[in-house]
Amino acid sequence: MLKSSFGVRKASALAAAFAMTVAGGAAHAQEAAQKELIWNLKEPVTEIARQIYDLHTLLLVICLVIFVAVFGVMFYSIFAHRKSKGHKPASFHESTTVEIVWTIVPFLIVIGMALPATKTVVAMKDTSNADVTIKATGYQWKWGYEYLDGEGEGINFLSTLVTPRNQIDKHKGEKGEAFGENYLVEVDNVVVVPVNKKVRVVTTANDVIHAWMVPEFGVKQDAIPGFVRDTWFKAEKVGTYRGQCAELCGKDHAFMPIVVEVKSEEDYSKWVQAKLEEMKAKQDDPTKEWTKEDLAARGEKVYNANCAACHQANGAGIAGAFPALAGSQMVLGPQAGQIDILLNGKGAGMPAWKQLSDVEIASVITYTRNAWANAGTGTDPVVQPKAVTAAR
């Protein structure tokens, strides 16, 4: 494949920075692009990503050659055949030969670009014979993962941004912490996959359209509510690779990163066993009677991880967008209504949270009914997990 010149490499970086700005949202993605992309795209670690990179370079070179040739001829003609040198315009109006040439040449150029591109696109869509299948579900604003097939089947978790809010506030010009090394692209639970194994990623969404994108893998697949789509990758190098949601999915669009850790087969097997044991140890008994204090303490963690982005940490909500929970009649009224909203959602603004366990839903409801100024002012201050189990 053609080697990039300095000019082409610079154009690649500018194009990639622009694309990432659009995908990542506002100045956050632009800063990440400036930090990580110096003169070129990220180094590919899959065969598909390598083909995409080579196609990108090839098309840039073809466009550059066409640009130089067309404008070179045009400017030469203007300069060498100008009126001040005594030249007069030609009297003919059409030429069959010219018409044929400027029809055939672009056609051949397009075919020359389309053939390798089609081969790559077909390969991108071939998700058969996968070693591991992972379902990625987009939520506002986090990712949920379920290992559906292959080694690791049964593993599931949510992956949420862990960049401290103080760092984000500093980016906005407010007083806060200095930026971390992986600002806005660090999560609490990373996706782990084995090296040199075909990984199929099935995408969908719980609320609005999201997109699962990891540049080094050459993967960008929309996650659409009510639809199931898929893509795949086969990482050839052990390491940690980062991406972002690449669709404008709402207020915190720039805050739902993707982190994939590629491990050796041996290390991956160890991770699978450890993760399954961890999940088993954390399983809750939904029939257990919890105290209000234990539920509220558990619920505060669930609320901060899943609800605070919209309803704020103080329960005040965001005027015109997300309702306040402090003083809300829905929160202070009978428990059945609040359980129903959490399980089934309400319109476009409130998604369903069925992916949370019965204990987590019961605990977050109990927390909101006893937090802020809500304590002691409503009915059913304690909601037990069995009530959520019955409502399902």
Describe this structure in words.
It is a single chain. The protein is an alpha+beta fold. It has three domains: 6-124, Helix Hairpins, CATH 1.10.287; 132-282, Immunoglobulin-like (Sandwich), CATH 2.60.40; 292-391, Cytochrome Bc1 Complex, Chain D, domain 2 (Orthogonal Bundle). Helix content is 44%, strand content 15%. The protein contains twelve helices and ten strands. The chain has helices spanning 6-24, 26-36, 47-80, 96-124, 165-171, 265-282, 292-306, 308-311, 329-332, 335-344, 358-370, 385-391; strands at residues 132-139, 142-149, 156-159, 191-194, 199-205, 210-214, 219-223, 229-233, 239-245, 257-263. The strands form two sheets. A five-stranded mixed sheet has the order 3-2-1-5-8, with no helix packed on it. The protein has a five-stranded mixed sheet with strand order 4-10-9-6-7. Strand 2 and strand 3 form a beta hairpin. Helix 1 (6-24) packs antiparallel against helix 2, helix 7 crosses helix 11 (358-370) and helix 11 (358-370) crosses helix 12 (385-391). It is elongated. It starts with 5 loop residues before the first helix and ends with a helix.
